[in-house]
């Protein structure tokens, strides 16, 4: 196939940057159709993608004979229905993370992809982030020995702007932020540790944003100043919050993985800084990232025992992503992989199985959190489905 892939887009909101990244006319792909219920989003899409068919109806894009593949970039609770409909139309589909907001709906998507033989890809872009790939490569090279425990802290400095002013703030649309926001980190944790989670236990609360009375009226749109890089601090100064807020703004999660690894994850939406910190401890060393973007460092302590020492035994600078772009260059690499997968199939660094397992952990952790921290077992995936996706979605079992 030498002509551009014709890309249909469902949802042109906060993740519209993915559609813009995929639009490379004359260089392999172009957005030819966009569906969004918001007239402003449709107007924006029409300006960015000249000549594209713009409609409020997602079915019109899915069923468009001039669309080769579809990006599902809509709110989380809509992913499953739209993904399944696209798969049944036999069009390869990119589903923004999280795959869905319940385990059952994730499994519906995977079963539909398997039954229809249509290619399914999930947008876990952090697997392409330079800092994550650097840590994974150091672990594979034996820098810390065998991984025994992983600790993740996620400081969500813009949480009040991004997650408490729209649908993200409501359980019915996300299950909770321990699923919606943590799905990235749970997936990375699994990737670094080399196994999936068996059991979880969590605690959390709505400590800050639940007490803020400055809510929009139902149906009132977000203000143009809903997000600012330097303002809206401290958190109690936030205005125009979502009318309904029933998800937690801080959470603590403990995990036991199938490979014997113990892990912990912490998420807070009212910190002043925004970044992720991963600490990986093996039986022969420890590594930790300081910053998570270009120019950050991954530091390794593995030569000797000591008291506190800021200077590590080795330090590695995180490079710019190839060609730059969103998330430290990860988004263009994610789209590169998706377009290659649409054309040729084969193995990918992202994984529908891993995406499903991240959601399963988030769901069970949220149940635990809301049940006084009672531990929960994570439901396994049907082994036949896992094998199908682990083989690159190849029914012959030989890979492509």
From TrEMBL:
Gene3D superfamilies: Dihydrodipicolinate Reductase, domain 2, NAD(P)-binding Rossmann-like Domain. It comes from the Bacteria. Residues 136-373 form the Gfo/Idh/MocA-like oxidoreductase C-terminal domain. Pfam families: GFO_IDH_MocA (PF01408), GFO_IDH_MocA_C (PF02894). Residues 5-124 form the Gfo/Idh/MocA-like oxidoreductase N-terminal domain. Belongs to the Gfo/Idh/MocA family. PANTHER family: CONSERVED EXPRESSED OXIDOREDUCTASE (EUROFUNG) (PTHR43708), OXIDOREDUCTASE (PTHR43708:SF8). This is Gfo/Idh/MocA family oxidoreductase. It comes from Streptomyces flavotricini.
């Amino acid at each position: 196939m030498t002509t551009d892939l014709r890309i249909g887009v469902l949802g042109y909101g906060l993740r519209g940057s993915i559609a813009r990244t995929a639009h490379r006319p004359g260089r392999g792909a172009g957005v030819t159709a966009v569906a969004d219920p918001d007239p402003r989003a449709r107007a924006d899409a029409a300006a960015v993608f000249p000549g594209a068919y713009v409609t409020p109806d997602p079915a019109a894009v899915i069923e468009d004979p001039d669309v080769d593949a579809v990006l599902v970039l809509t709110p989380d609770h809509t992913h499953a229905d739209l993904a399944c409909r696209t798969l049944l139309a036999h069009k390869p589909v990119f589903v923004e993370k999280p795959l869905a907001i319940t385990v059952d709906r994730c499994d519906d998507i995977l079963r539909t992809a398997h039954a229809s033989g249509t290619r399914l890809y999930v947008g876990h872009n952090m697997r392409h982030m330079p800092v994550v790939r650097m840590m994974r490569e150091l672990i594979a090279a034996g820098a810390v020995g065998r991984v025994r425990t992983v600790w993740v802290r996620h400081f969500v400095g813009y949480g009040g702007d991004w997650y408490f002013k729209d649908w993200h703030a409501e359980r019915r649309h996300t299950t909770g932020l321990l699923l919606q926001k943590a799905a990235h980190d749970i997936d990375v944790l699994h990737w670094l540790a080399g196994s999936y989670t068996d059991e979880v236990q969590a605690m959390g609360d709505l400590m800050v944003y639940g007490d803020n009375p400055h809510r929009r009226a139902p149906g009132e749109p977000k203000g143009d100043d809903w997000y600012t890089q330097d303002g809206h601090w401290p958190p109690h100064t936030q205005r125009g919050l979502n009318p309904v807020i029933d998800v937690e703004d801080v959470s603590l999660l403990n995990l036991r993985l199938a490979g014997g690894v113990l892990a912990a994850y912490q998420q807070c939406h009212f910190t002043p800084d925004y970044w992720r910190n991963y600490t990986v401890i093996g039986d022969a060393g420890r590594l930790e990232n300081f910053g998570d973007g270009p120019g950050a460092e991954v530091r390794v302590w593995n030569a000797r025992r000591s008291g506190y020492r800021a200077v590590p035994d080795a330090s590695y600078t995180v490079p710019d992503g190839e060609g730059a772009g969103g998330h430290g260059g990860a988004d263009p690499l994610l789209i590169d992989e998706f377009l290659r997968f649409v054309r040729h199939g084969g193995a990918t660094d992202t994984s529908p199985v891993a995406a499903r397992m991240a959601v399963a952990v988030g769901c069970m952790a949220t149940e635990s959190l809301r049940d006084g921290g009672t531990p929960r077992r994570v439901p396994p995936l049907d082994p036949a489905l896992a094998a199908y996706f682990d083989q690159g979605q190849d029914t012959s079992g030989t890979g492509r």
